[in-house]
Amino acid sequence: MATETGGPVPEVNYGTPFKIIRYADVLLMAAEAYTRDNQSGLAVPLIKLVRERAGDNDHSAIELSDQNPGY
């Protein structure tokens, strides 16, 4: 996003040449990649880590099969 003169919009990117994303987003993207590659065993610990960081320590609802969900 830029101003009418083409300069950076400070409230969007603060004039930096890079994007800032949350650590949880990185972990979830990695978990998704593992799941798409039929390696859900590697995805589950990442999902658990995100949930623990958010204060949810009940992992009973996390179940992933080793089958590709159709991606």
List the helices and strands and how they pair.
Blueprint lengths: L9 H4 L9 H14 L3 H14 L18
Helix pairs in contact: 2-3
Q: What does this protein structure show overall?
A:
Helices cover 45% and strands 0% of the residues. The protein has helices spanning 10-13, 23-36, 40-53. Helix 2 (23-36) packs antiparallel against helix 3. The chain is elongated. The mean pLDDT is 77.
Distance between the termini: 31 Å
Total beta strands: 0
The overall pLDDT, averaged over residues, is 77
Tally of DSSP helical segments: 3
The percentage helix is: 40-55%
Q: From N to C, what is the helix and strand string?
A: HHH
How many structural domains does the protein architecture include?
1
What can be said about the biggest beta sheet? none
What would you report as the Rg, rounded to the nearest angstrom? 18 Å
Roughly what fraction of the amino acids lie in strands?
under 5%
Name the shape in a single word: elongated
Instruction: Look at the helices and sheets and give the structural class.
Output: mainly alpha
Low-confidence regions: none
Summarize the structure.
The chain has 71 residues and is an all-alpha fold. The protein has helices at residues 10-13, 23-36, 40-53. It is built from three helices and no strands.
